[in-house]
Amino acid sequence: MKKRYTQVTAFAVLSVTASLLAVSNASAWTLKEAAEPYSGTTIKAVFLDRPGYKAASALIPQFEKETGIKVRTEVVPYENTREKEVLNFVGGGDQDVVLVDVVWMGEFASNKWLVPIKTFTDNPKLADPKLDLPDFFPILLDSFGTWDKTTYGLPFDNYSGLMFYNKCMLKDAGFNGPPKTWDELLNVYAPKLTKPDKNQFAYALQSRRGETQSADSFMRMLWPNGGSLLDAKFKSNLMSPQSQAGLEYRQKLMKYMPPGIVDYDHAEAVNALAQGQVAMITEWSAFYPTLTDPSKSKIGNCLAITTEPTGPAGLKPALGGFSLAVNAKSNAKKQAASWLFIQWITSKEMAKPYLDAGGVSGRMSVYKDPAVQAKFPFVNPMVQSWQGGVPDFRPRFPEWPAVSEVIGEWGSKIMLGQVSVKDGAKTIGDKTEEILNKAGYYDGKKPLLK
């Protein structure tokens, strides 16, 4: 018994010692020391002209001072970003930090253009012990950073579709709050809020041909009605009653939108609310800084925010945003420096500074602070929207860019009345199936990944 006690005691001592060493090693890790081998390295990244990127740019000097690593960013229009990055991968360009939209992840990862984060998290010299991956909202880490059960990027500039509205305009029309359902918006609110002779309209839906039409307009109206682009076998679901109802709804709502709405991108929709032309928009939470900037917005204290309305299928808001990943074609030194930057800008430590600077963090912990909730009224509806999960069969597969072009063309034609909802939807479905069939989705050559 005494011998056993001694063995157990010895084991306990060793365990405690190991734990203390682990804690000691963890506490010993610093960004400055981790970055020493890469001091003087310059890494390049593509940024967008949006608040979250301006926020990150404002914080970058702090990273550069701490690490000696230089971060050079190029601001590119969203519509050109994917093409620029793909050309970079194929042509051997010098981009090191990759910006990955939720709908590009399948393409980028399946082509092996991104480095799995495990390469860095398994390296104690590069992995911050406080990284805490479980602190990211699961829906964000899964949708924006992960493909085929492998994580490639960390969530950055993430947002949910929210309803921004002018509570003063609604009050003048006799409403004490926003519509709770899409049906209520169309049949109760829209008629009273639309005054074409005064250039005033109830609602604006960003619908410009391209990714805005496909992801922000077309798909946005399918999900709340229980529709979807594809069914469980990756065949078109656009002729289903639910999908048809969503697209017909969009056509009905157009009479309460500004003329030329089919050419509205995000900037035009946000500006329409900011200048008092429309009473409501469903837009990304990331545009909150724009709407609260007195130099860009007249809405002032009339601005209010809530979740998107619910439909027959419940609350199914749009989910948008990006992850930051490391370019697999960069050299090892630049890869390590890029990881240190990505790990830092998306860290728990930087979540509050990033939020204060105008960004939207993907970290759960920062939004639990009552002061943060009080300061940023978009937080509670955004967090609520991130609880429900991604709508079924979200288009994250590698063939999405080709499908998006089809939806961009024919979705715009539907809105303009150049083709009926039924005929336009059938054309989109047929062309989508042609693309997926050619890619091998129906002969067993490709798994039906979502």
From TrEMBL:
<keyword id="KW-0732">Signal</keyword>
<dbReference type="GO" id="GO:0042597">
    <property type="term" value="C:periplasmic space"/>
</dbReference>
<comment type="similarity">
    <text>Belongs to the bacterial solute-binding protein 1 family.</text>
</comment>
<feature type="signal peptide">
    <location>
        <begin position="1"/>
        <end position="28"/>
    </location>
</feature>
<dbReference type="InterPro" id="IPR006059">
    <property type="entry name" value="SBP"/>
</dbReference>
<dbReference type="InterPro" id="IPR050490">
    <property type="entry name" value="Bact_solute-bd_prot1"/>
</dbReference>
<dbReference type="Pfam" id="PF01547">
    <property type="entry name" value="SBP_bac_1"/>
</dbReference>
<protein>
    <submittedName>
        <fullName>Various polyols ABC transporter, periplasmic substrate-binding protein</fullName>
    </submittedName>
</protein>
<keyword id="KW-0813">Transport</keyword>
